[in-house]
Model the fold of this input.
Amino acid sequence: MPRRTPRTALDRLRTPGGFPGFLKAASVCALIAGLLSPLSPAVGATRAAAAEATAANDHCGNQCSDILPPGQNGNATLAQILLNQAFGTMPEHASDQLGPYAGLAKGYSGLTNATINTFFNDASFGVPSDQVASTVSPAGRSDVTIVRDKKTGVPHITGTTRYGTEFGAGYAAAQDRLWLMDVFRHVGRGQLTSFAGGAPSNQGLEQQFWRHAPYTEGDLHAQIDNAVASNGERGQLALADAKAYLDGINSYIDASDSGRYFPGEYVLTGHKDSVTNAGTIEHFKITDLVALGSVIGSLFGSGGGGEVNNAISLLAAQEKYGVARGTEVWESFRERNDPEAVVTVHDKSFPYATKPAAPQGGALPDAGSVTEEPLVYDRTGSAAGSAASGASTTAAATAMTSARRGMSNALVVSGEHTASGHPVAVFGPQTGYFAPQLLLLQEIQGPGISARGASFAGLSMYVELGRGQDYSWSATTSGQDIIDTYAVELCQDDYHYLYRGTCTAMDKVEQKNAWKPTTADSTPAGSYTMRVWRTKYGPVTHRATVGGKKVAYTTLRSSYLHEADSIIGFQMLNDPDYVKGPEDFQKAAQHINYTFNWFYADSEHTAYYNSGDNPVRATGVDAEFPVWARQAYEWRGWNPATNTADHTPPSAHPNSIDQDYYISWNNKQAKDYTTAPWGDGSVHRGNLLEDRVKKLVDAGGVTRASLVKAMADAGLADLRAEDVLPDLLKVVGSATVPDPTAAAAVSRLQTWLSAGGKRTETSAGSKTYADADAIRILDAWWPLLVKAEFEPALGSELYAAMTASLPIDEAPSAGHGPTGSHAGSSFQYGWWSYVDKDIRAVLGESVQGPLAQKYCGGGSLTACRDILISTLKEAAGKTAAQVYPGDDQCSAGDQWCADSIVQRTLGGIKHGRISWQNRPTYQQVVEFTSHR
Done:
């Protein structure tokens, strides 16, 4: 029976992407007949010829490019949605970047500098006069124009006043992403089901994010007040910018409402009437921006957590081996500071969250005492069903793990090693694939602002990732630990705790949601209440006993109540009068409290900085595990009223200027800098970039094309095949393989390795992999061999605990990450380092930072070989339908489809699948030729 695609986080969002059974041809035609007019003015009357929109001080020399699939236009009227659902027609600019993006997978091998923009957009400032598609003066303002180009429809916003510029940015954002922005302000407030429908996927999504940031309206306002008050003139400017931006959004809401060209999803979800136009699209307010920011920060920039899971797996190891030996085994799997791990900053040490010599304040739970704190209460109707309960379970598991899907990569080479003598960068964030996309493209030119690039919808008052006049910047998720778990001792009852010796009541925060069926979501009526108990040490996540005492475990995040603070850093990055070189860039990044790796390139320099508010922990506190909520173990300088504390100084964060090259694919930042997720070992997907870029740098003469080719080649590689399979086959081939099935499988795998170990089509559009059998065999073999290699020695309980901290595999067809299956991003978390180190040890090869013992075959090469051959034979016998059982996108056995990337519908427009690539969603290719 076909399985449904496993989904987590954003993939679980159900908005009008699939309307259950209502799109009958006759009804579609009837509806379309009455709705074809009016359409958005951007499609009609405003296409008059306009003057050329250009901006001064573009130092890129036509060598800046970018891409963001599927397309710039993320709004669609009801008529356009119905046409798309019935006949597949696309609104203008809804999908015109998807084809070039997809084409790189088979087109990169022959890439030259001259052909880069076959697969990317020209990211120069301005629009040539013959390429102007439309010019709009929003709300009739004389101080701002929005020019859109013919090729992609990207808005180029030019203002003569600061207010007008930001008004235009808000107006353009609403033109392109109004529905999506509305969805995510409701996600951030924990109100998605009441807004978009009660599908179990929507329930899970709002539960996941509200658990992290259960804010009241007062909390949101306090964040704004704090960000403004603590940043002087820049804080006041940010507030003025945000208000102007909101005015632009709300102006478009009013215009589209009166003109009846607002997004059709408002009709399909019951907020507007298609005949009478009755209903309301609520204006945006400033606290909505903070709610939006909390979602983005939680998804991509909030490293840490997982201390309770770590404690459970440590206890399992100690139960199996004894305290001393069990701790040694656990530490070898944790790989806090593995000497074989690929790092971004070379030959420098930045100690953070290292293992203390004498741990203090630990509060490990009594074995078997941990229970998860309930979030959902008072379920009625469809909220009480099994599907709803399953969504809650998945949401909780995703929220509690430290293995947050960072995604994103960067390749930056200094001018010393390039053909031109100028630095070259290829970088961008992997934010999943959605329709409309979470990010949007824009160019903003106005007083104190000069930038082009990508911003998250609803937060686009500034460019967040992109280029300025003579510099460019981007980010990857870093994952260092800014979240700690505290054990608060209970007193009086389960809802009072000891705070510095005083029995203190927990703060109860609730969000009540109810829904009813709509055209877009036929889920029957239901309701529930989300309830979080907050302490001064953060929200309660678990209950347990420690030494027989009842405790609640809480999570405290340094960015909790401070999501708004990062606006200052982005403001600085957009300001050409602030950023004039790499040092200024690093100072700007220091104002961003999200956990990101930031990269920079101009015509002369490259730079890197790791951002985030890293708390200064008390001496002896081990960040891996829960600690007692006592003053001696609190963050140094912590003020619970404001959740402020002492943070490590900028110099203690991994940073660098003009290193020969930088790579990042969410790997370890530097020696001694411990990140919260597991898996920073000898084999990491960062190795795929490191090996290729180092080879280019050693050869010299790096070009934009050669660096794009390196990225694209790594993006098709199977990490297991490239970095682990050769040693596995070395063990298997240490003697003749007698079994014909296993021998044939070995031959296929070796042939695939000789061809490069890529997951790539036979030809563009064939929808069939070259070496398909070998890929099927490895996909089937990996989970079998990992279990057979490790479970016998670890035992089933410890093996399960370890796999809960680090999943064994993350192949393209697996359901993982913030976007579930069909998400592109792959090979971030898995047991490839463990297998690599263990197999090399069995082979007698040198291993730095080895595991605590040899696992495969108990360390016997012969016994290990027997295990590998038997599991390989079993894998080879599995059919494609068994390995790829099918889901709501693909039929069973369709290997290409199982891997394929799907633009997950967050609105009413559907897009076709594209072949798998493991690369950034938004991506820049830059090489500046001059500097101011």
